[in-house]
Amino acid sequence: MNMSPAPTGPAGEPGSDPLRDRVLAFLRERWDFVALVALAVAPLVVPALGGALGGQVTMLFIYCILALGLNVMVGYTGLVHLGIAAFFGIGAYLFAILTVPMYPFQMRFVTAAAVSALATAGVGLALGAPTLRLRGDYLAIVTLGFGEVVKVTLRNLEQITGGMKGLNPVPPPGAGLKIGGTDLGLAFAIDPRWFYYLALLTLAGVVVAMRRLENSRLGRAWVAVREDELAAEAMGVSATRVKLSAFAMSSAVAGLAGCLYAASLSTTADPNAYDFNRSIMVLCAVILGGLGSIPGTLLGVALLVGFDTVLAPWADSTIQQWNINPSGSSLLSFSGWRLAIFGLALILVMRYRPEGLVPSRRMAAELHEAH
Amino acid sequence: MPLLEVRDLEAGYGPIRALDHVSLDVEDGELVALIGANGAGKTTLLMAISGVVPSRGGSIRFAGSPLTAVKPHEVMRLGIGHAPEGRRIFPRLTVRENLELGGFTQTDRARLSRDIDEACGLFPVLGERMDQLGGTLSGGEQQMLAIARALVGHPRLLLLDEPSLGLAPLVVAKVFEVIASLSARGISVLLVEQNARAALKLAHRGYVLETGRITLTGSGAELAADRRVRDAYLGEG
């Protein structure tokens, strides 16, 4: 906040470098812009992003979008949701149905993504309407159950979803679209940086949209219902409508993330990709980063999903290289301890920083006023 | 025809009968006090008017139309503001955001900000605290915020539930001064108070509620002079 340079001592004295202070202040104020530029430039200077790492970072972006969707319900509106992966999966499968060759639709990427996100919102409304009167634990159980139902349905509805094989091949965006003689779809298929940029751009769009929502009438109504439903109603806020809109928005964003997921993998993968573990992972990321906080949610995903998909495999292969674990015992592999480390980290954060790593201003005030 | 007309209202919770054939009127621009002991049903009456507690019998009419089947969030749109018991401001929203929610039904941003300025005119201290979180205000400031928030919605009738609860005497005087000025501005007020002396001094008329029944009614001065009221509520026995 404080943009004015620190009081200037004699030149060269450590700790009073106005330039450094100004750079730090700039980073604090405009982290979003700095991160966006850094991520946009990265593929041009880091060659590894043209390979497998590029695909992993793309996944990270997709999970960020999913987590921002979940944050609408859990963070802003205070409704516990344990089945966000189901909506991720519904988005992915709808997108696949609208694009794969075995179905007659074969829509363009943008149309298919828009239709599936909207339809996923519709499913969210269908789940939300009958369960509106539930709160806390009860709503959590309903969403948990819904997640399992979706997974099992996707697995058993083989004629439509392809069962355990999933639906594929999902064509890349822009397939058949020629730009300067090259097929855009082919470019997407060959170079992971295309998906990297597509996911980054979508994520940036979602972040901008979430910011605007936070400061909108609807955003205030979400928070008001979370804080005090009765008082909100006395202000003329219809809690019913506000909660339903949170359900719909959350589902739509999760569905959009699902579209990107299916497109970038060129398959929906098998239904187990949308199970309870994934829901919990995303929920943990939001809580770890800070409920209701956009930068917190992004950081939470970067830490948790980054740990899982980038750091853990890397540590495993390093351990293998050192040849410490020739018998392949899981006690000596990093992945064997993955969930334990994960759980311990969460416990520590909840103990020492319950409002999350980058708390929203509201949560920080609530949890620290008692101290 | 009175602005608010409650006739033979019955309401309760499970087997408990909280309101027993309660009848009460508030005329246009009138300040009416409702006094009574703890558990007499004062808050329940306000909750029934604002649609939170369903009525089991009788009728409530506001400006001529029945309120009995109206949903809580629609009551405010008809012109009834409610500053509920315990203030119930949004602690993790700023003062400005609290006030903006008070004008939730106003979609014209320019008008909303005028309405907020107007409400803050009554309580200048709120204007100085606009960007502070509601939960960090003092009790008196929170009460002022609760009243200002209800006023942003331009109510014709304001329901005030125990505005003096837990406040320092000096702050109570300030809050009551503003309440008195509301009827001068044409806003009717139904004031629920345990601080019977202050409420009756202010009110045009008053009602005494005892275990769900209206037992006495009269002008503020009449009630303040009544033997039974003095014994039971003014602590002069």
Please, could you describe this protein's structure?
The complex is a heterodimer of chains A (371) and B (237). Chain A is mainly α. Chain A has helices at 18-29, 31-45, 52-76, 84-99, 109-131, 136-156, 158-161, 184-190, 192-214, 217-227, 229-234, 239-265, 276-289, 294-322, 334-352, 361-368, and strands spanning 178-179, 182-183. Chain A has a single domain (29-290), classed as Orthogonal Bundle (ABC transporter involved in vitamin B12 uptake, BtuC). Helix content of chain A is 70%, strand content 1%. In chain A, strands 1-2 form a two-stranded antiparallel ribbon. In chain A, helix 8 (184-190) crosses helix 9 (192-214) and helix 14 packs antiparallel against helix 15 (334-352). The longest helix of chain A is centred in the last third of the chain and has 29 residues, at 294-322. Chain B is an alpha/beta fold and 237 residues long. Chain B folds into two domains: 1-79 and 155-237, Rossmann fold, CATH 3.40.50; 88-154, no CATH class. Helix content of chain B is 38%, strand content 27%. In chain B, the strands form two sheets. A six-stranded mixed β-sheet of chain B has the order 6-7-8-3-9-10, with helices on both faces. In chain B, strands 2-1-4-5 form a four-stranded antiparallel β-sheet, covered by helices on one side. Chain B is globular, with a radius of gyration of 17 Å. The chains are: A mainly alpha (371), B alpha/beta (237). Chain A binds chain B through residues 217, 220-221, 223-224, 227-228, 230-239, 361-363, 365-366, 369, and chain B through 50, 52, 71-74, 76-77, 82, 84, 88-93, 97, 100-102, 104-105, 107, 133, 135-136, 149-150, 153.
